[in-house]
Design brief:
The protein is built from six helices and three strands. It is mainly α. It has one domain. Strands 1-3-2 form a three-stranded antiparallel β-sheet. Helix 4 packs antiparallel against helix 5. The longest helix has 36 residues. The chain starts with a helix and ends with a helix.
Amino acid sequence: MSTETIVTLAISFLATLGLGSILGIFLQRRFEQQKQTSEHDIKIFKQSNELLSEQKLALIASFHLLKDHSIADDDFYLLTKWCIFFSEIGNQYLDKNTARQNQKLLNDLDQLTDFIASNFFSIKGQNPSNKSRYLKPDWNPERANDPSPEKTIKYNEYAKELKNMTEKVLRQYSYYRFAIKQNLKI
C-alpha cells in the first residue's frame, strides 16, 4: 500500500471519528509555520546576498586569492562582514538543512579570513592608494627583492594552503547555494 493511500485512509478514518477538524487545524498550523520559516529564511538570504553575492565571492576568490594571492581591503571587509552578519541570532536560518550548510560555509570562511588576516600584508614601499594586501610579499619571488630559496619554498606552501582553503570555501558555497535553491526556491 502506498504512503498516499495510507494517508488518505487515515484522514478518512479520522473524519469518520470526528477528528477531521482537529487534523485540519493541525495541518493548517504546520503549513503556517513552514510559510513563516520560508519567509524568514528568504529575507535572511536576500540580506546576506546584498553583502556578498555569489558573483562577488567568485571574483574575490578566482581573480585575487587564487590568481595573484592578493585581496583588496574592501573585499576582505565584505568576507568578514558576511560572517559577522550570520553571527547575530536574528540572522540565522530556521530551516535545519539550510542552517547546516550555512554553518559549514561560515566555518570554512572563518578559517580563510583568519589565514588572510595572519598572512597577508602590504608590500614595502607600496603606493598608498593601493589598498590591497598580499600573501607573504617578502617571501614571494615576484614581489620581494630576491627572497631566499627557503622563503620561496615556504611561500609556495602558504600559496598551496591558500588555494586549498579558497577552493573549499567555493565548494561549500555551492552546497549552501544548492540548499537555498532547494529549500527556499530562490
